[in-house]
Amino acid sequence: MAQTTDGISKSNFKVEVSAAGSVWTDISGFATSVTPSDGDRIVGEQQTADGDSPIIKAGKRNSVKLEINIVYTKGATDAFKVVWDLFESGAGVYVRYAPGTVATSLQFTTANSAGAAAAAVITNCLPPEMDSSTGDVATASFTVVCSQLLEGTVS
Description:
Helix content: under 10%
Shape: globular
Distance between the termini: 32 Å
Number of strands: 11
Number of helices: 1
Order of helices and strands: EEEEEEHEEEEE
Structural class: mainly beta
Number of domains: 1
Largest sheet: 5 strands, antiparallel
């Protein structure tokens, strides 16, 4: 396969959250990173009395986590407060993000086990770490867990 001449910058992306999956709040102006993790497939293996290698079988997939870091601000409608209020109430949050911002970009949305867009569980929503010896901008983070990510195009 020939080397690609295409690619996107990791620094250009769009992130949105929604309480119900219908009205979306664009938090791209607050977001500093989105880090997906887990979602790996469980693998079973079994050795037998005969042979030197195990029998390997694919199992089900684990849940997917998204850690989203945001600039911390104190506004009532700013990203941290929106997610904090959902976390405190025990509600979930729909999250979708798109690497790139072009209308034809792929986006990934939190989804349930049936593959439909769904609210993810907010496992933590952490206020900013503070440090008097730096001039860095304060950031906060939240982590969500969902069954899988649904791939689509930016709408």
